[in-house]
Specification:
Shape: rod-shaped
Number of helices: 3
Radius of gyration: 26 Å
Distance between the termini: 55 Å
Number of strands: 3
Largest sheet: 3 strands, mixed
Strand order of the largest sheet: 1-2-3
Oligomer: single chain
Helix content: 55-70%
Length: 95
């Protein structure tokens, strides 16, 4: 579970906070007047999270690109009617 500490803790004991973030790999939320204002996280954990986000984004963009290509093909009249696809699938699976 992430730690929540006042930002004054960073001013007083920054080295200990850095050590904690590096050892736990968990974010440390720093607060001012009881509200979160900054999150401190280990650089390696941050890089892994950003890499995961990028891979998810790239996959979503590939999916969206495929959908858009399909829509464009349908708009050009290049699509195959659903009934034909289902009939063909029935033939193939019934063999």
């Amino acid at each position: 579970m992430p730690e929540v500490k006042p930002i004054t803790e960073l001013q007083r004991n920054s080295a200990a906070l850095v050590d904690e973030a590096m050892s736990t790999k968990e974010p440390i939320y720093l607060t001012r007047h009881g509200r979160s204002v900054v999150v401190m996280v280990d650089a390696e954990a941050y890089d892994k999270q950003m890499d995961l986000q990028k891979r998810i984004f790239d996959r979503e963009m590939r999916v969206l690109d495929g959908i858009m290509r399909g829509r464009e093909e349908i708009a050009r009249g290049e699509g195959i009617p659903l009934e034909e696809v289902l009939a063909d699938a029935d033939k193939r699976w019934s063999l």
